[in-house]
Amino acid sequence: MRILLIGAPGSGKGTQADRLAEHFGVTHISSGDLLRQHVRDETSLGKKVKSLVEAGDLVPDAIVMDMLRKPVLAASAAGGYILDGFPRSVEQAEAAYAVTKKLGVAVQVAIHLDVDKAELVRRMLARGRGAEDTRDVIEHRLDVYAEKTVPLVDYYTSREWLLHVDGTRSVDAVTELIVARITERLARRHG
Ligand code: AP5
Ligand code: MG
Q: Which residues surround ligand 2, an ion (CB under 5 A)?
């Protein structure tokens, strides 16, 4: 199974992706986690992206796509993926679709985790993940989300490609909702 998780910073993508990966037996791939790992390891990619990640700006599309190609193919061969944090714009979605469609590993279900801004800010301040979770950078990440990713949510919605899920409920309740929605969608496709 190949799943996308889309949501604002702090909406619970990473939290839910871990649980869904286990439930469906697929590999969790997080573009943000991979980028942060490169920064920590001081790889050449990490050095290129450090200031962007810490400022909450998007990394150039080509860098993210190159970084994800191998893990996405490997996960697809091993039973599927849940991608968290990619695509993040209409441009990334179109580019990724062109590549994955050819290889037969395009996405099957996309989930949008819907959480209001006050709750997002509360969660990120409570988490405090380094430079990324300071008040100014949180505001900026939310602005980038509004500018780049909300149009992607609209684009997918207009194609009936996306399931909207209330992400403000408890972690367990959100997982249950997502599992139910995905199961229902797959049953309808195969039915
Ligand atoms: P990325 O790592 O994707 O960060 P993000 O989108 O800002 O999201 P977060 O990881 O902060 O939040 P999350 O939705 O995973 O929530 P979490 O589960 O942690 O990207 C980081 C950076 O990398 C970007 O800014 C950019 O620079 C770059 N980047 C990444 N992808 C890119 C791309 N495709 N293109 C270009 N650049 C890219 O939960 C948050 C907190 O809330 C946690 O403490 C959690 O315990 C808590 N929580 C979760 N669920 C609940 C709940 N239901 N109730 C209460 N608390 C909850
Ligand atoms: Mg995350």
A: 13-14
* Cα-based angle 130, 134, 139 (whole degrees, multiple of 5): 135
Q: Residue 9 has which token pair?
A: 């910073």
pTM, two decimals, is 0.97
Q: Compute the distance between CA of residue 51 and CA of residue 39 in angstroms, rounded to an integer.
A: 9
Residue nearest atom 48 of ligand 1, based on CA coordinates: 12
Distance of CA 63 to the CA centre of its chain: 16
Take atom 30 of ligand 1 and give the residue whose Cα is closest: 32
pLDDT tens-digit map of 13-54? 999 999 999 999 999 999 999 999 999 999 999 999 999 999
